[in-house]
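Minimal example, chain plus nicotinamide-adenine-dinucleotide.
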Amino acid sequence: MLEGRAAVVTGSTSGIGRAIAEALAAEGCAVMLNGFGEAEEIERQRAGIADAHGVRVAYNPADMTRPDEIAALIAAAEAELGAVDVLVNNAGIQHVAPIEAFPAERWDAVIAVDLSAAFHAISAALPGMKRGGWGRIINIASVQGLVGSIHKAAYVAAKHGLVGLTKVVALEAAESGVNCVAICPGWVRTPLIEKQIEARADADGIDVEEAGVAMLKDKQALPRFTTVEQIGQLAVYLCSDAASTITGVALPIDGGWTAQ
Ligand code: NAD
């Protein structure tokens, strides 16, 4: 379905981004990986996706807190893969603390990675998409872009901002064949959430599995985690013709979290 297209997926060395990169590649899309990690493991992942799906897969180590490195990431993808048709702004970090104890440095870091990075990447990639007359920008927001939770001031502010940015980009790009959508996952079991599950287990004196179930029950109607593969398939759907009029929206995939 995406043969001849090329994608940049930020933060694709782990979790949701990794699964989205894999799902796009499975549809024939060339992919530029990005994110932190051990060089050997990243090369194994890059070669593994390329071999499994017969597509070009590259890697760029841009730090998404750095506007100059983000511009270089988009330029490298255009040079190495020929274009950026699909941009998935996925890189994200979390910090959990009450607002009075929230370190200013962590606030700045979360806003930089979870919000400003998407602005910089979109402004660098949009001109090429407009020239090509087709593009899909997928921002990985969160249910926390739609509702708040205690102790997540920076994350909730960044994700609400990302939902707002999604609407503006969708409106500005509407006549150029470029759609922009935010995906808003509920709980997905990745390294980002594992830390929160462990903290809950410690706080309640329960084991990690029980803590995972308790977190699900606190927030979701469905007592199970969304999988990274399900988010990958949602991203693929958003790149399909069937989704060509879906733009400017924030799509929850959240086990009923925001229904209540
Ligand atoms: P993860 O920790 O498994 O992966 C995060 C990725 O971002 C990694 O590849 C990491 O290297 C990369 N990254 C972090 N800082 C970076 C930086 N400065 N520059 C470049 N790359 C950087 O987390 P995940 O759960 O897969 O999260 C992916 C996205 O999904 C995030 O935006 C997160 O907010 C969002 N999300 C996750 C959940 C969940 O339950 N896991 C729910 C809603 C939204």
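The two ends are 36 Å apart (CA to CA). The mean pLDDT is 98.
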